[in-house]
Design a protein that fits this description.
elongated, TIM Barrel, three-stranded antiparallel beta sheet, alpha/beta
Length: 521
Amino acid sequence: MNIIEIYDTTLRDGSQSEDISLSIHDKLRITEKLDELGVQYIEGGWPMANPKDEAYFQKVKKLTLKNATITAFGSTHKPGLSAQNDPNLLALLKAGTNAVCIFGKTWDFHVEAALRIPLSENIEIIFNSITFLKKNFDKVFFDCEHFFDGYKRNPQYALQAIKAAEQGGANCLVLCDTNGGCLPFEIGDITEKILKEVNIPIGIHAHNDSDCAVANTIMAVRSGATHVQGTINGLGERCGNANICSIIPNLQHKLGYDCIGADKLKKIKEVSHYINEVANLQHHKRQPYVGDSAFAHKAGIHVSAIMKNPETYEHMNPELVGNSQRILVSELSGKSNIIKKAEELGITASEKLLEKLKNLESKGFVFEGADASFELLTKKTSGEYVEPFEFLGFRVFVDKRSREEDSISDATIMVKFPDGNIVHTAARGDGPVNALDTALRKAIERFYPELKQVKLKDYKVRLLEAGVGTATKVRVLIESGDENSTWNTVGVSENVIDASWQALIDSIEYKLLKQEITPLS
């Protein structure tokens, strides 16, 4: 079995995404998670670029890592300076890692247009930089910037540049599709040619500007590359980098390469979601392998088939990547969906449940994105559900005194608990929905203190009818979560507050249902 070296650059290249800003603490948490995944190298940042990265390299030494080697990133030395006196290379020494990765120009156009130096001087810069670093580090990777574009336009010079790095002592030549515009057949052809010209390992670093980064990476490996660079969830500048969450399953599960091992592959969805959470990004539910929709089935014909054999509509066992099969219930669903979904919850789907769903869907309810509301519905319809409290009513007041002033929202609510205790509370909030949520929590958290863990993560409103103006019916979808999980609930009404209330109270009841929480006496 061929071994593929996984080099993660989420903390450096990935953090160059326009919507990401990671603190030092964030970077350290992600480092530990990547180490758990089993990647061989973690590129921590560019110590010359900013004080935050400098501090990271000092703090990361205190972590106990089991699998990964921390790598510092930089560039070849500047024209006019020697390698020994270049601040960038000296910053790499100060970072104190066992491995470093530097990039250098391999496209003659960039040497002449960006560096504005003779082509021969750039060759000397590459050789001198690698030679200097190799005296101080166990591993030196050379990122051949813009290599594929450079090779297509001037193959002789591109080869001359990477051979200078090889002669300087580089451990691996990482061929970069920096602009992300190459296609798989180009990557494969060029990688094969380069392997015949050098005697050290070849790597691949692909960007996704033509939506081919994963395919380009796989093609490079199939052509002989043994070192793969990429980021979790494909994070990165512009359109992002090659997505490790797709690359690793493709290489390891589909093609039989040894990347991180089968046990660690099961962690890849967890790591994907964790890093999105730390980076404060929404999960991309349609992401292959690790997305929540990657193994979700909605069409009744599909569900009927997978109940007989999952291979009919699934390309692999989702558990191998830490994911799971999901059955969606919606207006497009057949009976098979509902029966299968109910079975997952340990309930036999009755005709009463089928009729109830049909009736709710005719009113605009959709449960494909609201599993928590669906589970509550099945429990209530089966007669197995005991209400944790009885809702007696609410009022919401919105007061606005002038056009310039912000409106004020107040809500009152009355609920009754199993012991007969009736609680009537009021709260003010940032808008009527927030006021209602605050009043509800104020009423019940004293009896169910675990609800303090529940946070509103997302709130969406959808119009269900066109052409009726503000009288249209709306669907509210709420995503809630605690420190361990997330769940989704739905409400539908012509009144957005009432729809929000339905989703809010489902969210609270679902938390109590899943943890089998009983009220404090």
